[in-house]
Design brief:
- This protein is of the alpha+beta class.
- The protein has a single domain, classed as Alpha-Beta Plaits (2-Layer Sandwich), CATH 3.30.70.560.
- It has 6 helices and 9 strands, in the order H-E-E-E-H-E-E-E-H-H-E-E-E-H-H.
- Strands 3, 4, 5, 6 and 7 form a 5-stranded antiparallel sheet that branches.
- Strand 1 and strand 2 form a beta hairpin.
- It is globular, with a radius of gyration of 18 Å.
């Protein structure tokens, strides 16, 4: 009996890393990425690499789509793409990971918090995660604006699910 208890405690300890329970299941998420400074396509490709470096698998990509800025004025158009990924991260862990990628690539302002949109080297939004509805002060899934208000987003999502590239 004592051996079983020790084994169980050791096993449970190994499941916890940094006080987070490792999620052993896989989840599908849809991300929208955009860049409107520098070499925009290269910025997006760097973001792809950083996503895969963090143990997320890119399952499908949409076509690239150029669009004018939304909710702010700039002479720099965006290059956008939609991705369907597989991840073992929870929605909040995924958000934190994507924010780390944005900051690591040089993004200075989180417009999601301030609602002050501006030019940016990279923007990564979670549009959906499995088929859940999730809402907290930091994250809303599904992403209402991308699904209902932004035409370029709908075009990217159609491309993602129709082309399966």
């Amino acid at each position: 009996m004592a051996t079983a208890t020790i084994f169980a405690k050791t096993f449970l300890k190994k499941l916890f890393i940094n006080n987070n329970l490792i999620n052993m299941s896989h989840h599908n998420a849809v991300l929208l990425l955009g860049s409107n400074t520098g070499d925009q396509k290269k910025n997006l490709e760097i973001a792809f690499e950083k996503i895969t470096e963090r143990n997320m698998q890119i399952l499908h990509k949409s076509e690239f789509l150029y669009s004018e800025p939304v909710e702010f004025v700039s002479s720099n158009n965006f290059c956008n793409i939609a991705l369907r990924i597989e991840t073992g991260l929870s929605p909040i862990q995924l958000l934190d990971c994507l924010k780390e990628i944005e900051i690591g690539m040089g993004r200075l302002v989180d417009s999601g918090k301030s609602r002050n949109y501006s030019d940016r080297v990279i923007d990564i939004d979670i549009v959906s995660y499995d088929n859940i509805i999730f809402f907290c002060s930091r994250l809303e899934i599904p992403h209402y604006r991308h699904l209902h208000e932004r035409e370029f987003s709908r075009l990217l999502l159609n491309s993602l699910f129709l082309n399966r590239t």
